[in-house]
Amino acid sequence: MSRKCFQPKELFASQPWGFSQVVVAEKNKLVHISGKVAWNSEGQCLAQTLEGQFKQVMQNIFHALHSVNATAENIQMLRLYIPNFQPGKDANLISKLLIDTFGPENQPASTWLGVQALAQPEYLIEIDCVAAIN
User: Fold this and answer.
1) Range from 15-19, 27-31, 36-40, 76-80 carrying the lowest mean pLDDT
2) What is the phi-psi region of residue 10: left when phi exceeds 0, alpha when psi lies from -120 to 50, beta otherwise?
3) Do the Cβ atoms of 77 and 84 come closer than 8 Å?
4) Residue 82 and residue 117: Cα distance in Å, rounded?
5) Among positive and negative, which fits the CA dihedral 44, 47, 50, 54?
6) Choice among 25-34, 67-76, 100-109 with the minimum mean pLDDT
7) pTM for this structure?
8) Angle at 90 between CA 88 and CA 96, to 5 degrees
9) What percent of the chain is helix, strand and coil (3-state, nearest 5)?
10) pLDDT tens digit string along 68-99?
11) Distances 95 to 17, 110, 120, 132 between C-alpha atoms, Å
12) Residues with Cβ < 8 Å from 15, sequence gap 6 or more?
């Protein structure tokens, strides 16, 4: 396993929200994946909802990981950029999607950022990623 997760008792239990408080990758090479949006291979954004775009973005991240012989298990950190982020509603959805994607334990660290805008108006989410490989 490429990701070792820690939950310090002094910090809140983050696993129900879909992420780990601390992630360690020992003796690995870091892979930085540029922010991915919900474009397919033809440069089309077909998903019209935050959930649909999240799923397409994660597929794009998994394709990028595959290109360096990595998988979701290699992901150490995700940064999610969401325009017009709605606390509560969007946070609950993101938590569910992260748990669906990574399971209830051993999740990557993450930061969720509400932003003014992304590169194109149809983008509802952009995610960048740091992974570790041997």
Assistant:
1) 27-31
2) alpha
3) no
4) 8
5) negative
6) 25-34
7) 0.90
8) 100
9) 30, 30, 45
10) 999 999 999 999 999 999 999 999 999 999 99
11) 5, 11, 25, 23
12) 7, 104, 105, 107
Site of tokens 């910090």: 11
User: Residue 57 has which token pair?
Assistant: 């973005």
Place of tokens 């930061």: 111
Is residue 90 classed as helix, strand or coil in its secondary structure? helix
pLDDT band at 1 (very low <50, low <70, confident <90, very high): low
Q: How many CA atoms lie within 13 A of 94 on its CB side?
A: 25
CA 2 to chain centre: 16
Instruction: Give me the half-sphere count of Cα atoms (radius 13 Å) on the Cβ side of residue 25.
Output: 19
How big is the chain, counted in residues?
134
